[in-house]
Every structure is written in structure tokens, then in C-alpha cells.
Amino acid sequence: MAELKDLLDERRKMVDKKATQHREIRDDWNEKTKQFTTTRNELNNEVRELIVQVREQRDLRDQMNEMVRQKKKERDGANQAVRDAKDSMREKLPEQPQQFDRRGRPIRPDTVQSLTRTMEQLEREFGMGKHQGKNEIKYFKKMKELSAKRKRLQEQESISGTAEGNKELKAAVELQEASHNAVKEAAEAAQSAHDLMIEWNSEVDRQREKAEAAHRKLRTSKKEADKEHSLYIVSLRCLHSIQDILRAMRGASAGQGQRPTASNETQDLMAKLLSGETLSTDELMQLQRFD
């Protein structure tokens, strides 16, 4: 009998140790579950805030795109005004015979604007050193010819009343340039809003992946905590079975009338545990203590 009691007491200590290990591991997993839950919730909140920002940026981009369309319409009107001004000037200029180059292609007649552009191009080339030596004489001769021709055209425009047309053309060109710049600015703003929307959308994906990873860890930790809790409950049941056997052995030694029993409180806790009710940590630890 003494050998059996020693064996049971040894087993009781072993099971008690296992129960303690399972309880501590379970508590560690429960703590991790709390941490993962907090992390997941924080990341989900960030995702929701980023989604709001993405939507706001998308709305801004759409507004900028609508502005681009409006500015393009205004620019089209300015382009038409330039074309109309040029057509009006051509009608007032004296009709010139059509000229053709060696290949029979029509040559566009010179205008004050085209001659000015040619002279400015030659001046830039001269400043870059492209007309040196003998070519320098040709350069000055060419510039003199172009200047005289431009002067004659200016006089013709003045006589024919196209000077006023030039003013209209200049105003139309300025409006055209302003409209083009407005389109460019609106397009850049729309592109900037789109780029920022894409950047935030990518951030949403990154944060959502982190939140999902935290949720997976949460599920794993909860599963492990539940497993350790189940093993802890099994250990407690084994522990109390051994305790019941030891009490019975002590009762047999002391006489039937003096058989020790577990306390009423302990019995109540075991009854609750076996019926499937949930016990607090303090109650479970009380069950683990040997009466």
C-alpha cells in the first residue's frame, strides 16, 4: 500500500507540474492574442483612414480632369480665333502670284512674322559662330535683304489696313498661349492628384496585408491558447482523480468513519468544470492545489 501511495504521489506531482506548464503557456498565448488583436485593429483603422484619403484624392483628380476638358474647349476657341485673325489678314493683303520651287511645290508667301523668325534664327546662328569668314559677308547681306523685305511688307500692311489685323492676331495669339498654359496647369494638377491616389492606394494594400498577417497570427495564438487550456483542464481532472484515490487510501487507513474528503468548495468547482462551465483563473489555480 505504501509503494502505491508513493507512486500515486509521484504521479500527482508530475501531473501538477504539467498542469502548471500548460497554464503558463496558455497565459502566454492569451497575452500574444491581446497584442495581435490590438495591432490588427490599429492597422484596420489606418486602412479605413487611407481609403477615405484615396477617395478624396480620386474626387480631386476627377475635378481636375473635368477642368482640363473645359480648358481644352477654351483653347480650341482661342485657336480658332487665331485662325480667323490670320484669314482676315490674308484677305486684306494684296494678292500675290503663286510661286513654286524647283520641284513644283507651292512656296508659302513671306510675311512679317515669317521674315522676323528667319532673321532671329540667323542671329542665333551668327552668335554661335556658324557664319564666320567669307560667310560673314553673306550673313550681313542676307540680313539686309530680309530687313528691307520686312520693311516693305510692314508698309504694305499699314497701307492696306492690316496693322489693325496684326493687333487682333496678337491678342488672339496671347489668348491662345494663356489657354494652352491653363490646360497644361490643369493637366499637371490632375496627374499629380492621380499619382498621389495611386501612392495611397498602394499604401492601403500594404497596410491591409499587415492587418491580415496580424489577424492570421491572432487566429494561431487563440488556437494555441485554446489547445493549452484544454490540456490544462485534462491535467486538472487527472490531478483530482489521483487526489481522490489518495484520499480514499488515507480514509481506508484511518477507518471508514474518518475518511477525508475534498472541501465542499473544491467539489463545487470540479462539478462546474465537469459540466462544461467556464472557471476563472483563480478558481482553476485553486483546483490545482492539493487539499
Percent range for β-strand residues: under 5%
Helix content: over 70%
| Helix segment tally | 6
Shape: rod-shaped
Strands in their spatial order, largest beta sheet: 1-2
Secondary structure: number of strands: 2
Domain count: 1
Q: Oligomeric form of this entry?
A: single chain
Describe this structure in words.
This protein has one domain. 85% of the residues lie in helices and 1% in strands. It has 6 helices and 2 strands; from the N terminus they run H-E-E-H-H-H-H-H. It has a two-stranded antiparallel sheet with strand order 1-2. A hairpin with a 5-residue loop joins strand 1 and strand 2. Helix 1 runs antiparallel to helix 4 and helix 2 runs antiparallel to helix 3.
Blueprint (SSEs and pairs):
Elements: H1 2-92, E1 99-100, E2 106-107, H2 112-127, H3 134-160, H4 162-254, H5 264-274, H6 281-288
Antiparallel strand pairs: 1-2
Helix pairs in contact: 1-4, 2-3
